[in-house]
Amino acid sequence: MTTDLRTAPPGFLAADDVVDLGHPAVQAVRWSLAHDRPDDVTYARRAFEHVRDRVDHSYDVADPRVTVRASEVAEAGVGLCYAQSHLLVALLRAHGVPAGLCYQRLAAPSGGHVVHGLVAVSVAGRWHRLDPRGTDVAFDLVREALVYTPDPARGERDVVGVFTSPPEEVLSPLRGVDDVLRAGLATDLPDRPGSAGESDVP
Predict the structure, then answer these.
(1) Cβ-based neighbours of 39, under 8 Å, separated by 6 or more
(2) How many alpha carbons lie under 13 Å from residue 17 in its C-beta half-sphere?
(3) Which residues are paired to 117 by β-bridges?
(4) Environment class of 12 (CB within 10 Å of its CB; exposed 0-12, middle 13-18, buried 19+)
(5) What is the CA 27 to chain-centroid distance, rounded?
(6) Residue-wise DSSP of 48-113
(7) What sign does the CA torsion over 47, 163, 94, 6 have?
(8) What is d(CA 137, CA 144) in angstroms, rounded to the nearest whole number?
(9) CA dist 162 → 4, 59, 64, 128, 197 (Å)
């Protein structure tokens, strides 16, 4: 998915309680990736690969710790797909690269559906979706590389829009739990068409 983007709305560079890009833990990673003043594309690739390769998915390593804020993910090195995306967005915004959150609704192996978190980044004037969840997924701004391809026959879909902040439907199941492996997950999200300043994103 790509789309033209002439100007980034302010929210796509902003911090919030979850995308806490000013936190020292996030800034330390940012400076390690930007030590030689890379251009935006090079920095975006480094940030993506850092999260993909150095932040384990909670289920993959059976780690029950609950990490939600970008700083928590940076410090712990583990999190759900949402958490991985929060850190990647924080790292991108900390370097002045517009970024937001996007989602897919996917069929769960145990039945029902869950929401999968992704990232959208704007470099070279276009939005590109990135998925740090998959260790074998490349950083590709030409051919979109994602872990999952939604199957409408299974009730799966891409959620329309790029979100500036994590929606409440994603955050609320993670609040007040002490074992992320037993936490409930969001099952669907409302579309946000035009939320990135252009139509059909993603």
Answers:
(1) none
(2) 4
(3) 103
(4) buried
(5) 17
(6) HHHHHHHSEEHHHHT------SHHHHHHHSEE-HHHHHHHHHHHHHHTT--EEEEEEEEE-TTSSE
(7) positive
(8) 10
(9) 13, 25, 28, 11, 9
pLDDT digit string (tens) for 81-91?
999 999 999 99
Out of 3.30.930.10, 1.20.1250.20, 3.50.50.60, 3.10.620.30, which CATH number does the structure's domain 10-182 have? 3.10.620.30
- Give yes or no for a contact between 8 and 58, defined as CB atoms under 8 angstroms apart: no
Helix axes 24-33, 81-94, angle to 10 degrees: 70
Q: Are 24 and 138 in contact (CB under 8 A)?
A: no
**Are the CB atoms for 171 and 156 separated by under 8 Å?**
no
Q: Which of 124, 164, 144, 114 is nearest to 43 (CA)?
A: 124
Query: pLDDT tens-digit profile of 77-116?
Result: 999 999 999 999 999 999 999 999 999 999 998 889 999 9
